[in-house]
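notes to self, project folder thing:

trying the whole complex as one job this time. last attempt i did each chain seperately and stitching them together was a nightmare. four parts in total, labels are on each line so i dont mix them up again. if this works i'll redo the older ones the same way
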Amino acid sequence: MKISTKGRYALRIMIDLAQHDEGEAIPLKEISERQGITLKYMEQIMPLLTRAGYVRSFRGNNGGYLLSKSPSDYTVGDILRTTEGSLAPIACLEDTPNRCERREECKTLKFWEGLWQTINDYVDGTTLEQLVNQKNE
Amino acid sequence: MKISTKGRYALRIMIDLAQHDEGEAIPLKEISERQGITLKYMEQIMPLLTRAGYVRSFRGNNGGYLLSKSPSDYTVGDILRTTEGSLAPIACLEDTPNRCERREECKTLKFWEGLWQTINDYVDGTTLEQLVNQKNE
DNA sequence: TTATAACCTATAAGTTTACTAGGAATAAAA
DNA sequence: TTTTATTCCTAGTAAACTTATAGGTTATAA
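result (full assembly):
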């Protein structure tokens, strides 16, 4: 029951982009050095965020990435679902043909649906801006 | 971000034990047939529940398992944590030496702690009895 | 004594995770 | 126009994890 590095890194990358936004595209190389995440692995994560419209990418010299919206307009849930996929705790809940033949008599299905809902509510209740402004004691 | 079969099966096994409890030990073979879970795999899951004191096991002829408490005395969280391990969504949260050297400056740690808490609260808010009495529409 | 059942340990196939690698496309700057 | 810096795309891969199988040992009621 773990969030993978894809989701965790994506969150840190988005925070980094928010913190260092001065209007100029930020290359992954910079983020890689600050965050200690390998460039090549980040290159695999970023297209997910680009395709979702969460960042704008600029190729070529002086290229890099910029957030497309204000940090307050992203929920953490948006970012996690885009990179991790669905946060459903069991495959049965997804549309995909993972349905169980015991579905009708399943005593646990509603419980799992509730957990899924609870997780989604929580992750959608925090914005990227709130994380950026997070103070550490 | 998925619950594994260990946790899901354990829950179904506990429900099955509750539903068929008539004072006599229930052998895994019966549960296996009803639930469509292989006997050998269940044999690996049960000792976790036995050691946790959640079921009493009886070896030998006419042996099997019985719940040690009333279904209302188990939360789903108890059962899942016993079989799945901690429900922490990232390893950083656990005591184990998974701590990150960026811990002090981490903007996301509190968020993950909150998710963990939210998950634990939810799974501890449902009892085995409630699942047994679950009606399906 | 036999049958039945839990218990224990090892192994193995399949899947996922977390990368690594190499090159193609793009675009600013020299 | 050439160089340099960057994203993008696809493939490969080692390690870990999941989901079992398999075989044998121990315990106990009939």
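what i see at first glance: Chain A has one domain: 5-132.
need to look closer tmrw
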